[in-house]
Design a protein that fits this description.
alpha+beta; Molybdenum Cofactor Biosythetic Enzyme, Chain A; 4 domains; 6-stranded mixed beta sheet
Length: 418
Amino acid sequence: MNNESNARRPSKKLTPLDDALAQVLATVPVLNQTQLVRIEEATDRVLAQDCYALVDVPPLANSAMDGFAVHAADLETVPVSLPVTQRIAAGQTGSPLAQGEAARIFTGAPLPPGADAVVIQENCRMGDSSVEILQAVTAGENVRDAGEDMRRGSQILQQGRRLRPQDIGLLAANGMTDIEVMRRPKVAIMTTGDELVTPGSDQGKGLSEGQIYNSNAYALLALLSSMGIEASNLGVVADTPSATREALDTAAKDHDVLISTGGVSVGEEDHVKAAVEEAGSLDLWKLAIKPGKPFASGTVHGKQFFGLPGNPVSTFVTFLLLVRPALLTMQACTEITPQTFFLPASFARPESGERQEYLRVTVQQQQNDQSALQPYRNQSSGVGASLSGADGLAIIPPHTAVNEGDLLAYLPFTELLN
């Protein structure tokens, strides 16, 4: 990469993404309201309290394998034949095991008192009432100790964690049924543009000249759903100042967050910016990123407002980079930063401009079996197919040329869409 030119700063009229994100996260309100939800409904919710183990897990030392519970000291010389005095399955408890005895045991079954190891059945020859041990074991071998997973009273999850399926399993292992979580924000979506038609509203007649289907609203609904957030779709708002003001006023009454697409640029038919400034404040406008320059953030009647650009790629990318972390922050989530990876470019690209670029890319396997980034053929912000056909976003810093083999920061959609 051309590192010397990286030092140039974007125009003062444009806000770099890192600065914009820091500003958004510092100003969005944290809801500070909690709910009790059933454990089966807690996935993707943000914990409102620290969680501590209520029991030892496992509660007793148990067998990690199917085999025979023994005293390891009885196996100093092998092979050795031992009488089998009991059979213990998972959910049962055995009686004390005397020296010189073995117990048939199955995975998950508690170790009988006195036993200190398990010989796996593959290393045994089983008879009717005895077993020949073919391989010695040491004390503790093939045994799960009591509390090995969790000790009663130990902290298992921290407040602010967004619960994943594996976390739900952890809570269930402690017998928990009701979990205190943060309330999710109520979100309203409005799209602007007289050219937009809601899918299905044409009643099969098709589009008239100059019309397009409204895809942004449905992409945003899906993005919010992937975060577990239900949103109100206010539909397409007419491109007039009065209709725009009315839609914002109505949405602010019952929602915590208002998201609009389109109308925040500088065209004569872009009325959202002016309407927001009348009903509240516009704290952030125009970013030094591509796509997504005409992004806006502010408040409407005290409620958080995000104005996303109208092009589908710009809408999608600015939601992922700015709105998604803001919505998590509003729930006091402590894990909002997606993991960034570094992969080589399989392409060359001339020096970028003053804006940081987010290329839609796929991960391709090269002849040397190494992974490399390949850009989608059309990087226009109006080409929604570039999102569907991509694996993630490659980041090109401002004023940076890319040569084949350069390492690029890469944000996979698997990190951004969860």
